[in-house]
Write a sequence for this structure.
Protein backbone atom coordinates (compact mmCIF):
# COMPACT_ATOMS: atom_id res chain seq x y z
CA UNK A 1 0.00 0.00 0.00
CA UNK A 2 1.75 3.15 -1.15
CA UNK A 3 -0.39 5.44 0.93
CA UNK A 4 -3.83 5.77 2.48
CA UNK A 5 -6.02 8.83 2.06
CA UNK A 6 -6.73 9.90 5.67
CA UNK A 7 -10.18 11.13 4.60
CA UNK A 8 -11.15 7.94 2.77
CA UNK A 9 -14.41 6.67 4.27
CA UNK A 10 -14.31 2.92 3.81
CA UNK A 11 -17.35 1.93 5.79
CA UNK A 12 -20.82 3.05 4.79
CA UNK A 13 -21.95 2.66 8.39
CA UNK A 14 -19.90 5.69 9.34
CA UNK A 15 -16.68 4.32 10.81
CA UNK A 16 -14.17 7.14 11.34
CA UNK A 17 -11.80 7.51 8.38
CA UNK A 18 -8.35 5.90 8.39
CA UNK A 19 -5.99 7.97 10.53
CA UNK A 20 -8.77 9.17 12.83
CA UNK A 21 -9.93 5.94 14.47
CA UNK A 22 -9.36 5.35 18.14
CA UNK A 23 -10.90 4.15 21.36
CA UNK A 24 -12.96 7.33 21.76
CA UNK A 25 -14.66 6.77 18.41
CA UNK A 26 -15.49 3.17 19.29
CA UNK A 27 -16.62 3.71 22.89
CA UNK A 28 -20.34 4.01 23.42
CA UNK A 29 -21.48 2.39 20.14
CA UNK A 30 -24.68 0.35 20.06
CA UNK A 31 -24.19 -3.19 21.29
CA UNK A 32 -24.14 -5.97 18.69
CA UNK A 33 -22.22 -8.50 20.73
CA UNK A 34 -19.89 -10.81 18.83
CA UNK A 35 -17.62 -13.26 20.58
CA UNK A 36 -14.77 -14.81 18.66
CA UNK A 37 -11.26 -16.11 19.16
CA UNK A 38 -8.04 -14.47 18.14
CA UNK A 39 -4.91 -16.45 18.88
CA UNK A 40 -6.83 -18.43 21.49
CA UNK A 41 -8.12 -15.32 23.30
CA UNK A 42 -11.82 -14.51 23.49
CA UNK A 43 -12.55 -11.14 21.92
CA UNK A 44 -15.89 -9.36 22.34
CA UNK A 45 -16.93 -6.72 19.81
CA UNK A 46 -19.55 -4.18 20.83
CA UNK A 47 -20.57 -3.41 17.24
CA UNK A 48 -19.87 -4.09 13.59
CA UNK A 49 -17.90 -0.83 13.56
CA UNK A 50 -15.62 -2.11 16.29
CA UNK A 51 -15.12 -5.41 14.47
CA UNK A 52 -14.28 -3.49 11.29
CA UNK A 53 -11.78 -1.32 13.14
CA UNK A 54 -10.17 -4.48 14.58
CA UNK A 55 -9.87 -5.91 11.06
CA UNK A 56 -8.25 -2.69 9.82
CA UNK A 57 -5.79 -2.80 12.72
CA UNK A 58 -4.90 -6.38 11.78
CA UNK A 59 -4.46 -5.42 8.13
CA UNK A 60 -2.56 -2.13 8.46
CA UNK A 61 -1.37 -2.04 12.06
CA UNK A 62 -2.62 0.28 14.79
CA UNK A 63 0.32 2.64 14.28
CA UNK A 64 -0.63 3.18 10.63
CA UNK A 65 -4.28 3.88 11.48
CA UNK A 66 -3.15 6.60 13.87
CA UNK A 67 -0.91 8.28 11.31
CA UNK A 68 2.26 6.19 11.76
CA UNK A 69 4.17 3.95 9.35
CA UNK A 70 2.19 2.11 6.70
CA UNK A 71 3.21 -1.40 5.64
CA UNK A 72 5.54 -1.50 2.63
CA UNK A 73 4.09 -3.04 -0.52
CA UNK A 74 6.88 -4.50 -2.68
CA UNK A 75 6.50 -4.12 -6.43
CA UNK A 76 6.41 -7.16 -8.70
CA UNK A 77 10.07 -6.67 -9.53
CA UNK A 78 11.00 -6.37 -5.86
CA UNK A 79 9.14 -9.58 -5.02
CA UNK A 80 11.04 -11.33 -7.83
CA UNK A 81 14.31 -10.02 -6.36
CA UNK A 82 13.44 -11.36 -2.93
CA UNK A 83 12.50 -14.79 -4.28
CA UNK A 84 15.67 -14.98 -6.36
CA UNK A 85 18.09 -14.15 -3.53
CA UNK A 86 16.43 -16.37 -0.92
CA UNK A 87 18.48 -19.43 0.00
CA UNK A 88 17.00 -22.57 -1.60
CA UNK A 89 15.01 -24.72 0.78
CA UNK A 90 13.26 -23.35 3.84
CA UNK A 91 13.91 -19.64 3.26
CA UNK A 92 12.83 -19.71 -0.38
CA UNK A 93 9.72 -21.72 0.52
CA UNK A 94 8.69 -19.28 3.25
CA UNK A 95 8.95 -16.19 1.06
CA UNK A 96 7.24 -17.88 -1.87
CA UNK A 97 4.38 -19.20 0.26
CA UNK A 98 3.77 -15.74 1.72
CA UNK A 99 3.47 -14.18 -1.74
CA UNK A 100 1.70 -17.09 -3.46
CA UNK A 101 -1.09 -17.32 -0.88
CA UNK A 102 -1.29 -14.00 0.95
CA UNK A 103 -1.46 -15.77 4.33
CA UNK A 104 -0.56 -14.10 7.60
CA UNK A 105 2.59 -14.84 9.60
CA UNK A 106 0.76 -16.79 12.34
CA UNK A 107 -1.11 -18.77 9.69
CA UNK A 108 2.13 -19.78 7.99
CA UNK A 109 3.88 -21.01 11.15
CA UNK A 110 0.80 -23.01 12.23
CA UNK A 111 0.32 -24.89 8.95
CA UNK A 112 0.71 -28.67 8.84
CA UNK A 113 1.20 -30.87 5.79
CA UNK A 114 -2.32 -32.24 6.29
CA UNK A 115 -3.60 -28.75 5.38
CA UNK A 116 -2.20 -29.08 1.84
CA UNK A 117 -4.41 -30.47 -0.93
CA UNK A 118 -1.96 -31.05 -3.76
CA UNK A 119 -4.44 -32.26 -6.39
CA UNK A 120 -6.78 -29.31 -5.81
CA UNK A 121 -3.94 -26.80 -5.37
CA UNK A 122 -5.43 -25.40 -2.19
CA UNK A 123 -4.26 -24.98 1.38
CA UNK A 124 -6.66 -25.10 4.32
CA UNK A 125 -6.22 -22.27 6.80
CA UNK A 126 -7.61 -23.96 9.86
CA UNK A 127 -8.67 -21.69 12.73
CA UNK A 128 -7.35 -18.64 10.97
CA UNK A 129 -7.75 -15.13 12.32
CA UNK A 130 -10.95 -14.75 14.37
CA UNK A 131 -11.60 -18.48 13.95
CA UNK A 132 -12.71 -18.05 10.32
CA UNK A 133 -11.52 -21.12 8.44
CA UNK A 134 -10.85 -20.72 4.72
CA UNK A 135 -8.94 -22.14 1.76
CA UNK A 136 -6.22 -20.31 -0.16
CA UNK A 137 -4.75 -21.08 -3.57
CA UNK A 138 -1.22 -21.17 -4.96
CA UNK A 139 0.52 -21.74 -8.28
CA UNK A 140 1.67 -25.19 -9.51
CA UNK A 141 5.37 -24.50 -8.89
CA UNK A 142 4.70 -23.62 -5.25
CA UNK A 143 2.93 -26.96 -4.76
CA UNK A 144 5.79 -28.80 -6.47
CA UNK A 145 8.21 -27.14 -4.06
CA UNK A 146 5.98 -28.00 -1.09
CA UNK A 147 5.78 -31.66 -2.13
CA UNK A 148 9.55 -31.88 -2.45
CA UNK A 149 9.92 -30.07 0.89
CA UNK A 150 7.54 -32.53 2.60
CA UNK A 151 9.51 -35.59 1.54
CA UNK A 152 8.72 -38.37 4.02
CA UNK A 153 7.37 -36.06 6.74
CA UNK A 154 4.00 -37.16 8.09
CA UNK A 155 0.72 -35.26 7.61
CA UNK A 156 0.69 -34.06 11.22
CA UNK A 157 4.13 -32.41 10.92
CA UNK A 158 4.37 -28.66 10.74
CA UNK A 159 5.42 -27.40 7.31
CA UNK A 160 7.97 -25.15 9.02
CA UNK A 161 9.30 -25.94 12.50
CA UNK A 162 9.94 -22.28 13.14
CA UNK A 163 8.79 -19.41 15.35
CA UNK A 164 7.22 -16.14 14.22
CA UNK A 165 10.34 -14.28 15.37
CA UNK A 166 12.60 -16.51 13.26
CA UNK A 167 10.44 -15.87 10.19
CA UNK A 168 10.69 -12.13 10.85
CA UNK A 169 14.49 -12.45 10.91
CA UNK A 170 14.46 -14.33 7.59
CA UNK A 171 12.35 -11.62 5.94
CA UNK A 172 14.56 -8.90 7.44
CA UNK A 173 17.66 -10.67 6.12
CA UNK A 174 16.55 -10.65 2.50
CA UNK A 175 14.95 -7.25 2.76
CA UNK A 176 18.30 -5.81 3.83
CA UNK A 177 20.27 -7.93 1.33
CA UNK A 178 18.27 -6.50 -1.59
CA UNK A 179 18.09 -2.97 -0.19
CA UNK A 180 14.28 -3.17 -0.15
CA UNK A 181 14.03 -2.68 3.63
CA UNK A 182 16.25 0.41 3.49
CA UNK A 183 14.25 1.87 0.60
CA UNK A 184 10.92 1.60 2.38
CA UNK A 185 12.38 2.70 5.70
CA UNK A 186 13.48 5.92 3.96
CA UNK A 187 9.92 6.29 2.67
CA UNK A 188 8.49 5.89 6.16
CA UNK A 189 7.16 2.42 5.40
CA UNK A 190 7.65 -0.82 7.33
CA UNK A 191 8.88 -3.92 5.44
CA UNK A 192 7.82 -7.13 7.21
CA UNK A 193 6.29 -10.57 6.53
CA UNK A 194 2.93 -8.79 6.25
CA UNK A 195 4.28 -6.85 3.25
CA UNK A 196 3.99 -10.02 1.16
CA UNK A 197 0.29 -10.19 2.03
CA UNK A 198 -0.17 -6.61 0.87
CA UNK A 199 1.76 -7.33 -2.32
CA UNK A 200 -0.39 -10.41 -2.97
CA UNK A 201 -3.65 -8.47 -2.58
CA UNK A 202 -2.50 -5.39 -4.47
CA UNK A 203 -1.11 -7.33 -7.43
CA UNK A 204 -4.17 -9.59 -7.64
CA UNK A 205 -6.46 -6.54 -7.57
CA UNK A 206 -4.38 -4.79 -10.23
CA UNK A 207 -4.54 -7.91 -12.41
CA UNK A 208 -8.34 -7.82 -12.29
CA UNK A 209 -9.24 -10.40 -9.63
CA UNK A 210 -12.88 -10.10 -8.56
CA UNK A 211 -13.10 -8.30 -5.20
CA UNK A 212 -15.36 -10.94 -3.66
CA UNK A 213 -12.86 -13.65 -4.61
CA UNK A 214 -9.99 -11.60 -3.17
CA UNK A 215 -11.99 -10.99 0.03
CA UNK A 216 -12.50 -14.75 0.40
CA UNK A 217 -8.83 -15.56 -0.15
CA UNK A 218 -7.71 -12.84 2.28
CA UNK A 219 -10.14 -13.97 4.96
CA UNK A 220 -11.67 -10.51 5.37
CA UNK A 221 -14.97 -10.06 7.15
CA UNK A 222 -15.64 -6.77 5.36
CA UNK A 223 -15.48 -6.02 1.65
CA UNK A 224 -14.43 -2.47 2.55
CA UNK A 225 -11.13 -3.83 3.87
CA UNK A 226 -10.49 -5.58 0.56
CA UNK A 227 -11.44 -2.44 -1.37
CA UNK A 228 -8.57 -0.66 0.35
CA UNK A 229 -6.16 -2.41 -2.04
CA UNK A 230 -8.01 -1.08 -5.05
CA UNK A 231 -8.33 2.41 -3.59
CA UNK A 232 -4.59 2.69 -2.98
CA UNK A 233 -3.36 0.98 -6.16
CA UNK A 234 -1.53 3.20 -8.65
CA UNK A 235 -1.68 0.70 -11.52
CA UNK A 236 -4.90 2.03 -13.08
CA UNK A 237 -3.74 5.63 -12.67
CA UNK A 238 -0.39 4.79 -14.29
CA UNK A 239 -2.07 3.14 -17.28
CA UNK A 240 -4.47 6.07 -17.68
CA UNK A 241 -1.52 8.46 -17.55
CA UNK A 242 0.42 6.50 -20.15
CA UNK A 243 -2.56 6.57 -22.47
CA UNK A 244 -3.36 10.24 -21.91
CA UNK A 245 -0.33 12.40 -21.20
CA UNK A 246 1.18 14.26 -24.14
CA UNK A 247 4.80 13.45 -23.21
CA UNK A 248 4.08 9.73 -23.42
CA UNK A 249 3.74 10.23 -27.20
CA UNK A 250 7.53 10.64 -27.33
CA UNK A 251 7.78 6.98 -26.40
CA UNK A 252 5.29 5.71 -28.94
CA UNK A 253 2.05 5.94 -26.93
Amino acid sequence: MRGVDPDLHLFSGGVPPVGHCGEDEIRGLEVVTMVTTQGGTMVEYNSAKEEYYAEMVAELGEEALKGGKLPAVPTREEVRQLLEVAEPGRDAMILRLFYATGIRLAELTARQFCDIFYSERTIFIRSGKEDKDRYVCADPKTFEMLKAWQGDKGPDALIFEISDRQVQRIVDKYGEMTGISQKYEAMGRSFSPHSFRHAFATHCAENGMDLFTLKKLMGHAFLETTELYVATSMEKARKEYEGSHELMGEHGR
